Amino acid sequence: MKNVIFITLSILFFASPAFSNPFLEKAEKAYDSKRYKEAIESYEKLIQEGYTSYQLYFNLGNSYYRNNELGKAIYYYELARKIEPNDEDVRLNLGIAAGKTIDKIDAKENFFISAVKTNLLSSFSTTTWAKLTIIALFLAAVLFFFFISSTQLLVKRISLVLSSVLFIGFFITYFLGSSAVNAKYENKFAIILAKEIKIMNEPTALAKVKFSLHEGTKIRVVENNGDWLLIKLDNGNEGWVKINDVGII
Predict the structure, then answer these.
(1) Largest CB tally within 10 Å, which of 99, 131, 184, 215?
(2) Helices marked H in the chain
(3) Number of Cβ atoms within 10 Å of the Cβ of 245
(4) Radius of gyration (Cα) for the chain, nearest Å?
(5) Taking the model in full, what pTM does it have?
(6) What is the phi/psi pair of residue 17, to 5°?
(7) pLDDT by residue (tens digit) across 87-102?
(8) Whole-number Å distance between alpha carbons of 213 and 230
(9) How sure is the predictor about 3, in pLDDT bands with cuts at 50, 70 and 90?
(10) What order do you get walking across the sheet with 209-214 strand by strand?
């Protein structure tokens, strides 16, 4: 992997309340000196103190990747993308790390449709979708007002066409925004953190092993039952995993 990919986002991170935190300075010095375990410890302490930002998650993901902990690297890249879905560095590093996972799972759903749907909904945050919906509705209403109040035929025609387009845009952005909100709150995913885990047919250590998965694989969480999670893969396979073996995004 190219070094240029793994830049730390220090400048942006300094804009956060963690600017003067000694753990941040210690983490960055350790990362620059390639002492990745020390960098991880300091970044983790920042999180324990309550700091959250996509830059912090991104830098921690970089540290885990450099420390050959692929599962945790992907987990923190995913957390960074959840906050800042359009950041190119996050998307790039996540894509490279995900490409190194062992498990290759074929999607039951049409891959092209699934990819377009996922990329489209994640292209903006839910807040941005909401703003686009409001802007489209407001502009459509203003142009419709021009249509009904203007006495000039050309203005009426143009305002009617633009108002119609924006009303359609309003419904599209509303639908996509609603879908993005549902995807955010109804679909819960997790990343496998352990090197290899056994997927059981029941939520108990004495149950039968169905199959194995490896670190970094992204799974859908269907149900929580105490210390166990019922998970489902894109190919439709289901099973139970210990909650401590995964990181919920």
Answers:
(1) 215
(2) 10-13, 22-32, 36-48, 54-66, 70-83, 88-98, 111-121, 126-149, 153-186
(3) 18
(4) 23
(5) 0.69
(6) -65, -10
(7) 899 999 999 999 999 9
(8) 14
(9) very low
(10) 209-214, 196-200, 238-242, 228-232, 218-225, 188-192, 246-248
